[in-house]
Amino acid sequence: MSRAATLVEAAGSRWTGLTQHPFVLATADGTLTEAAFDGWLLEDHAFVMAFRRFLAGAVVIAPDERARDLLCGGLAALTGELALFRDELAQRGLDADTHAPSLTCIGYAGWMQASLEDGWEVALVVLHGVERAYLDAWTAVRERSVGQRYDQFVRNWSSPEFAAWVEELAGLLGDGAPTAAQQRAHDRVTEWEHAFWNTVHAG
To answer: Is the four-CA dihedral 3, 136, 158, 104 of positive or negative sign?
Structure first.
């Protein structure tokens, strides 16, 4: 079994619970309130900005050109993702520059950035975990979102291209049992994702 699969399996119901989180389900079927969606747009835009800095840091500590090439491709892809956010923010009259991120967002982003200090093996688990959480959650509700008002966001993180990126990250993780530090990092990603979605869903 791949190391990535082992980490996800070890997370058990906490991981599968991401696919059934009330925020994810309400976004997919279009019942999420406009206020909650606006809040999520602002929060996730702030998180993606922090994620880009984290990913750039991961490029620096990557051990070889194969890994650096892959991560640089991920950095390039974030340009389109941020454009999606900014277009929607502009249409809704929301100003990301004046938004003060929640403590949950700040904490998650700060922990993610700090994981770079734990070295490549841990940072890669964090990177894969963050991306895999979105892939699994939004893929699980992809068909539910067809024709609904937030469908383009669901499809952004359940597309074949995004799935291929996550699979390539899993390939970098390789096979075999994860270290204790890797398992702790993956468990913490799961906890942060639940906390982040709890925060935006509650408004």
So the answer is: negative
Instruction: Mark out the alpha helices in the chain (DSSP H runs).
Output: 3-11, 13-16, 22-29, 34-61, 65-91, 103-114, 120-140, 151-156, 160-173, 180-202
SS3 per-residue string spanning 24-62: HHHHHHCCCCHHHHHHHHHHHHHHHHHHHHHHHHHHHHC
Q: How far apart are CA 138 and CA 116, in angstroms?
A: 27
* pTM for the full predicted model: 0.96
Tens-place pLDDT, residues 79-93:
999 999 999 999 999
Residue 51 amino acid letter: F
pLDDT tens string 21-36: 999 999 999 999 999 9
